[in-house]
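Q: How would the structure tokens look for this protein?
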Amino acid sequence: MSKTMTLVPPKLQKLEITLVGDSPLLVNRYHAGEVGGGRNKPEDEYLSCVYHYDDKTYGFPSSGVKNSWLETVNNQVKGITKTYFRGAIFMTEDLFPLTGSEPRHYESMVRTERGQMVKAIKAMFWPWELAVNLNFLPGVITPDQIANIAMWSGITQGLGARSPHFGGTFGVYHVKPPEPTEDTESEEQ
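A: Here is the predicted structure in token form.
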């Protein structure tokens, strides 16, 4: 006797959150097997540190955003576990568009695992905005909860190299309030 099974797909909702930088964003994309960046001329080495969203726009990895938010959930949010949050939101792209400025050369001295001081070259964006597009399960988490987690993450974790997560001050951001829609405006009147 065969039984039939009815599958009910989850009803996902879309959400866009814009992150606005409050301090410069340092990006250090290195290719596997490379130490200290790319094989470019030293003055152009920082350009090998950027991600390209498309031919005209730079990008930032969605995994970096989600991991930052997960650390915030793990350390600052009561009532939501990291596993619960991970299963409630789904990033829609590998890279999110990073806008606001062209990358600039940034270098600093860093200590390696062996204790040696070496020059680290990164790309710096300032000012910057990041448009985060995601899907979420509305019966599990609300848009307000996601936006608040993003806001707290911007202060406590940040994004990119030398962010608060790593003891620095770069990559700090706030969440841009959504633009009012016609429906919202008519409800307020």
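Residues 16-176 form a domain with the Alpha-Beta Plaits fold (CATH 3.30.70).

The chain has four helices and ten strands.

Upvote if useful.
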